[in-house]
Amino acid sequence: MKSAALRVRLAAFALAACAPALAQVGPPPAPPGLYAALGELPGIERLVGEFIPRLKRHPRLGAHFRDVKAGPFQEALSEQICWLAGGPCTFQGRALRDMRADMRGVHADLKIDQADFNALVEVLQDAMDAQGIPFAQQNRLLALLAPMHREIVTVR
Predict the structure, then answer these.
(1) Which CATH number goes with the domain that contains 55?
(2) What gap in Å lies between CA 118 and CA 11, rounded to an integer?
(3) Does the model's pTM come out above 0.70?
């Protein structure tokens, strides 16, 4: 097993490398079986339920999430991951370009830099580890989330 620091660096590098190209065309189609590998909607909800408290407790990221209401955030993030992973969710019916505008608007004033983004990836990986999601499936999910890098990182 790779060290946690190396794993985070590899995932962050992969996200950063993929983001510019993927941002032009949107996320790739969901890999076959990813939705099932994440435990379908109940598994995704458990993952997000593990992820959000970790974000709120994180020394670097906690301030960004202090005033975020966990319930609505968990519902929206679960729906988004379900949709991206090929599940039956519709992510509130938004088209990808609308989701990008929403993501950009939500994060515009938060002064999120690359280190914040990398920390978020690490927290997500820790939550996936805690839920027993295999590393290969983690990478498949991260690849789907990569296009949002440009909308989330606002300080370059």
Answers:
(1) 1.10.490.10
(2) 9
(3) yes
